[in-house]
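Project outcomes to date are best conveyed with an example. Our students and postdoctoral researchers have been running inverse folding experiments weekly, and each run begins with a structure described purely in tokens. The record below, which covers 75 residues, was selected by the lab manager from last quarter's runs and is presented without edits.
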């Protein structure tokens, strides 16, 4: 479950939670502040307790929360 709150043409806040639906699964969360100064570049500052931001890592929980920076460049 996630949302994308657009604060301006550049900044948005993106909260996300993955809720475990069966026994043995792990729930996790991510909160990101995204800045897109133009259509080709976005920078995310995020905090999460998921193992990874992509693929199966989104379904697993890490032992400790982490903060990071993600750069997206569309060419």
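After processing, the design step wrote out the following sequence:
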């Amino acid at each position: 479950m996630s949302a994308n709150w657009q604060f301006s043409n550049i900044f948005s806040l993106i909260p996300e939670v993955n809720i475990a639906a069966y026994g043995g699964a792990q729930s996790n969360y991510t909160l990101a502040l995204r800045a897109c100064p133009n259509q080709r570049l976005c920078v995310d500052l995020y905090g999460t307790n998921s193992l990874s931001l992509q693929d199966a890592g989104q379904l697993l929980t890490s032992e400790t929360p982490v903060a990071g920076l993600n750069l997206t460049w569309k060419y």
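The first strand starts at residue 5 and ends at 6. The chain is about 0% helix and 55% strand. The training component of this project remains on track.
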